[in-house]
Amino acid sequence: MTGIRKIAREAGVSPASVSRVLSNDSSFSVSKQTRARIKEVAAKYNYHPHLNRAVTPPITPRSILVLTTHSLETEAHDPYFIQVHDGIIQEASKQNIQIKAFVRFPDKAFQFTDAQKYDGVIVAGVFTQEFYANLAKNNPHIVLIDDYRYLPAYDIIRNSYFEATQIVLDQLLENGLNKIAFIGGNIHPMNNNGETTDSYQDIRAKAYLMWTRLHNISPLIALNGWTPKDGFDSMNALLKDNFQVALIASDQLTIGAYRALKQHQLKVPQDLQIISYNDSDIAEYLVPSLSSINPASLSMGKIAVQRLVHRLNNPNDIPIHINLPAKATWRESSEINLN
Question: Where would I find the HTH lacI-type domain in this sequence (predicted)?
Fold first, then answer.
């Protein structure tokens, strides 16, 4: 195909001159003879700029499927999950990626073959390993969020709750506080039909128990579940022991724990200090305001999309596991500012 450079060489002018003459640029100053010579050569080769210009085909946006274990009711009670999902939506929009489906489990109607319709899949929450394996058979481009098991076949985005917990515990010990309780729950992976009977230890509880063993401290721990009522029941069960600080695995659990302390006429932080996790909006407005460890959940959602884009562009790269730093926000519920 004849191009501008060939016409320029034969006409004895620069490619830029050819371009401007053939585009009828009235501001371009050139002699009539030169203008005529350029057009004559172009006509000789039947060159028309608008026919020879490369046409960029429209780019079809990539599409992703988001699977989550978080019901709307769960999100309403725990903003942590809302932040994760908001991060996914914001970054997908920025990257011109369409979230074609957002499936909340349990969902008996879901078929693993559905995943074949999408470029990639983001999973927020914890499913069974069998679920992941079946999903990967139908779409290998998968990024997991918030799963702390060792799963070398998948990209995983999570926060550093384990490290943050041990740092806070070390700081408490340095300040003379060694009677520390922990309230939380276990993790129950989900399948299509709902939670399974299998469970494993939450990363925060694991960090606490490893730390108490390391320091030869007897653990005071209650793992009843994740609702405010579970927090209420757990605090009531632990109050028979004399402890100085309670680490509570979510702000929602702390709501119930606060109520139990009020019923026992115990004051925070004068009688018992409280440090929680998730640093949701409610932490700032509880009375007293709640010290809480922030997991950077919005960034978890954004980075999951970024990692999925990388996976789509580089399908043979080794999966990576990214731990985002968690940071404590200190408020009135802990007497000592551990910063």
Answer: 2-56
